[in-house]
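Help wanted!
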Amino acid sequence: MNSIHDMGGMHGFGPIEREENEPVFHHKWEGKALALARTGLAGGHFNLDEFRHAMEKISPVDYLSISYYERWLEGTIAMLEEKGVLDAGEVEQRMKEIS
Amino acid sequence: MTSNDDVALRVRALESLLLEKGLVEAPAIDEIIDLFENRLGPQNGARVIARAWSDPAFKARLLSNPTDAIVELGFEAVQGEDMVVVENTSRVHNIVVCTLCSCFPWATLGLPPVWYKSAPYRARAASDPRGVLAEFGTEIGQEAEVRVWDSNAELRYMVLPEKPAGTDGMSEDDLMPLVTRDSMIGVTKALDVGEVTP
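Answered by r_m:
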């Protein structure tokens, strides 16, 4: 699949920004997002290729504007909905209940 | 762009649903976070490289059968991936990228830094590796070839940096601080002895 994720050789992204003494996670939710994706993989609900494809299917505008671990989160939710583990809208409903 | 609070809420909602459905258990989540925060990281890769610099037989195994040689030191593959170790010399300088996303040798280097996953690095490491190296302050003479390795889910690359001058006779433990994460990605060389802060 040739979409925005296929970045090798693209022009125009500017200089590489680096951070000294970068933490493993910048926010607590990032570690949670990674852990939930990995438990989804470990539980056999989806495999690594399906998961990567779910992130590659994120629309190009969203792909560039959301952060790395948001892509993991959205990829995980998309896979769990596609596999019927979650109903569509279930996450949004739960967000309303706990906010 | 969603706000950080909104994303945190979305993660909490997903977590609460998966806990409720019995699909994950809280200790398993904590265990995974602890693994990535505390047990995986470039200190593991530095051990592998320092061993290769000190032990020619291990170095030969590391280059010919990297996955098994790395397991010898106790660093098991996290995603079932195969490892490839490429050696930097005065003639060849290797640099690793994942143009499609973020594939990285988790067992030896941990999670990748943000710049490795960023669009500028993924785009330009492939088309202008010497320019990228210059941005990292790494000058590679025209007499040396620069090779770029594009990682994927099944194959993860790690660079064996050149052993710095003036390190003959140093122990494996003393060599380890010279081996930085960036030198194992190939964007820099290993540190010289004088560059290590005690």
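OP: Thanks! One thing I noticed: Chain A touches chain B through 56 residues (CB under 8 Å).
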